[in-house]
Specification:
Layout (H helix, E strand, L loop, with lengths): L1 H5 L8 E4 L27 E6 L7 H13 L3 E5 L11 H14 L6
Parallel strand pairs: 1-2, 2-3
């Protein structure tokens, strides 16, 4: 949903995407809605996170998205300990990663 909304964004926007599959078409969605198809050309203000311990969105399911995001300049985190958001014991660590990224890109309120 966020990557679809980002398509029409014209201002400065930093965005964090955590634990999303590369494609949704295998779930019946049209391929044009696949997250990998919605990455902006300049993804320098985007952070994509994936956990190797995620059993909901497996590393294989997000591999293509992560690779494309890196090629397009996004920050990418592949963390061997992270599981699925709010389903693992690393919520605080995950939020610290997000906060550091948003602070570094100037996207936090002061």
């Amino acid at each position: 949903v966020l990557l679809n909304a980002l398509r029409d964004q014209t201002g400065i926007l930093s965005l964090v995407i955590d634990s999303t599959p590369s494609t949704l078409s295998e779930y019946g969605c049209p391929p044009e809605h696949d997250p990998v198809a919605k990455l902006p050309r300049d993804a320098g203000r985007l952070l994509i996170m994936a956990g190797s311990a995620d059993r909901v969105v497996t590393p294989d399911a997000s591999r293509e998205l992560l690779a494309a995001a890196e090629r397009q300049g996004a920050a990418v985190i592949r963390d061997p300990e992270l599981g699925h958001p709010f389903m693992d014991r690393h919520t605080r660590r995950r939020m610290e990663i997000v906060s550091r990224f948003l602070t570094a890109t100037g996207s936090t309120h002061k």
